[in-house]
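=== RUN LOG ===
request id: a7f3
mode: sequence -> structure
chains: 1
length: 116
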Amino acid sequence: MSLYNQHKIEPICLEGWAARSGDGSENLFNTSHSGSPNSFYGEKGIPGVDELIDLAGTNFDPKVRREAIEKAEELTHNYVAFAFNYVPVKVYGTRKNVKWAPRADESMCITNEDDK
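=== RESULT ===
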């Protein structure tokens, strides 16, 4: 932190990918829907997954949504585009002189209060 406090390095940030809305279908759309620019599976996607994600994202029946999300996750799991090798565990701690609160989107930036 001494280099940061001396303004010799930029703020330190850690990014996660969480559903800002709290809805699991948001991340499923972002990572697996062929209409998402962030899709791990490209423009062609995985057969049947887009329809399941669309159903989950537009239906208000919790049972229908859950079944659609579970089936879409099963299909994406069986059509692996990458290896899952890191799942962070969120553990937070601060000192009395650090003003900080966790964010719903899992972004975390460490900044110096004097810079504000």
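=== NOTES ===
The two ends are 17 Å apart (CA to CA).
Residues 1-16+88-116 form one domain.
=== END ===
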